[in-house]
Amino acid sequence: MTEIIDGESVAADVRDAVADEVSRLSDAGVGPGLATVLMSDDAASETYVSMKQRDCEEVGIESFHVEIDAGAPASELYETIDDLNGRDDVHGILVQLPLPDHVDKRTVLRRIAPEKDVDGFHPENVGRLVAGDARFKPCTPHGVQKLLDAYDVETEGADAVVVGRSDIVGKPMANLLIQKSPTGNATTTVCHSRTEDLEAKLAGADIVVAAAGIPEFVDGSTLKSGATVIDVGINRVDADTEKGYELVGDVDYESAKDVAGAITPVPGGVGPMTRAMLLYNTVKAAGLQRDVAVDL
Ligand code: NDP
């Protein structure tokens, strides 16, 4: 029987643990706060930001929101970040990506104070992750790690294949999988658009993390029987639904679910975990900044 990995349920557990820590921190005089910054007219980005605000509310994290006109000069965003960096009530700063073309993403990510970089994208935090001394693990791969742990998926000695090498998913995911730790110790292959014979790599994988951004890209016929399949992809495809589209992952769920030993659905797999881990990082950030131990 294939096990369906329930991201909603594991994310709910993470949120409960976060809510407990928020109330403990609040008793100690620390009210964790997250600032979201939106510089885009993109409807999906607006939705993501409002979901993050709602998530904060649910666990008792104070949320602050700044909207900057998409056509404004980059300096306006820099000034906003500088202001948020200096505020005592803001412990985490999240600049929603993507940014307009005239704004350099790398410059923006470097501007965020590393101790408030709850996305984990600042070079200092990337370096710490690679060195096995993570301050904030990026939310999506951290969420995947939590799912694997929650479902007792053995990573030690496993052959893992990560499909995708982006800075926000593929690379940090691979880094977590190779860490010398009980939730790492996997032999990890990172695949990308120039990989030759992806199918041969998939065929040998005990764990597959699919993050290619291509709808239903990984077919069940390419998977090893019993593999754990983590589908990070979120793709909108046209469909005869009320909204005119449906969400599918990077794995062809129908063909994969009978071959896999365990699999995440889309939606309801990795997505809720990404959201929960942002709350986790915000509480961790508040504890670190105010020198109060956080038990997460
Ligand atoms: P990117 O587009 O930044 O990266 C995609 C990666 O896939 C690239 O490294 C690319 O290779 C690789 N790729 C493309 N084509 C192929 C191919 N034919 N064979 C093998 N590899 C290929 O995407 P992201 O990492 O940002 O996101 C990946 C997916 O995850 C998307 O569907 C996104 O929506 C989703 N996502 C979901 C989240 C969640 O919470 N569930 C959070 C973040 C993202 P190359 O580098 O050579 O171009």
TrEMBL record:
Molecular functions (GO terms): methenyltetrahydrofolate cyclohydrolase activity; methylenetetrahydrofolate dehydrogenase (NADP+) activity
A cellular component annotation (GO) from this entry: cytosol
Ranges where the Tetrahydrofolate dehydrogenase/cyclohydrolase NAD(P)-binding domain occurs: 138-287
Isomerase is among the record's keywords: no
InterPro entries: Aminoacid_DH-like_N_sf (IPR046346), NAD(P)-bd_dom_sf (IPR036291), THF_DH/CycHdrlase (IPR000672), THF_DH/CycHdrlase_cat_dom (IPR020630), THF_DH/CycHdrlase_NAD-bd_dom (IPR020631)
Catalytic activity: (6R)-5,10-methenyltetrahydrofolate + H2O = (6R)-10-formyltetrahydrofolate + H(+); (6R)-5,10-methylene-5,6,7,8-tetrahydrofolate + NADP(+) = (6R)-5,10-methenyltetrahydrofolate + NADPH
Tetrahydrofolate dehydrogenase/cyclohydrolase catalytic domain: residues covered: 5-119
Record-stated family: Belongs to the tetrahydrofolate dehydrogenase/cyclohydrolase family.
Function: Catalyzes the oxidation of 5,10-methylenetetrahydrofolate to 5,10-methenyltetrahydrofolate and then the hydrolysis of 5,10-methenyltetrahydrofolate to 10-formyltetrahydrofolate.
Protein name (record): Bifunctional protein FolD
Gene (UniProt): folD
